[in-house]
Write a structure and sequence with these properties.
Blueprint: H1 4-13, E1 30-37, E2 40-43, H2 47-50, E3 55-61, E4 67-71, H3 81-107
Antiparallel strand pairs: 1-2, 1-3, 3-4
Length: 112
């Protein structure tokens, strides 16, 4: 009889997909993690800050600021809608900032 530990070891050794596949993205994804604590929102929290959180929200937007993913593991079942909307707004602002940095870096690159 195979133990649960042996089953886990076998799963870890065996690749799920042995073929290599190329990931094609139509736009660059940008993510921002926010913690909601009482009436505060903190963007890009440290591990120490995450330890005191009420709720964690990760927002992923594409380069045109369209919502790609919203992840909220655990915490209170219902976070205030306005707090989640504020996290999305913070992510949109971050996308603009990062897009400017990327555009500036790309324009400064010499292409052979």
């Amino acid at each position: 009889m195979v133990s649960d530990e042996q089953k886990v070891e076998n799963l870890e050794k065996e690749a799920v997909n042995k073929e290599r596949r190329k990931l094609t993205l139509s736009s660059i994804p940008f993510s921002l993690t926010c913690i909601l604590h009482k009436n505060y929102i903190l963007a890009d929290p440290t591990a120490e800050e995450e330890s005191i959180m009420d709720t964690l929200v990760t927002v992923v937007l594409d380069s045109s600021s369209q919502l790609v993913s919203l992840y909220k593991p655990g915490g209170p079942v219902l976070a205030y809608t306005s707090a989640v909307q504020n996290c999305i707004a913070l992510t949109r602002q971050r996308v603009k900032e990062l897009q400017e940095i990327l555009d500036e870096a790309i324009s400064g690159m010499e292409i052979d």
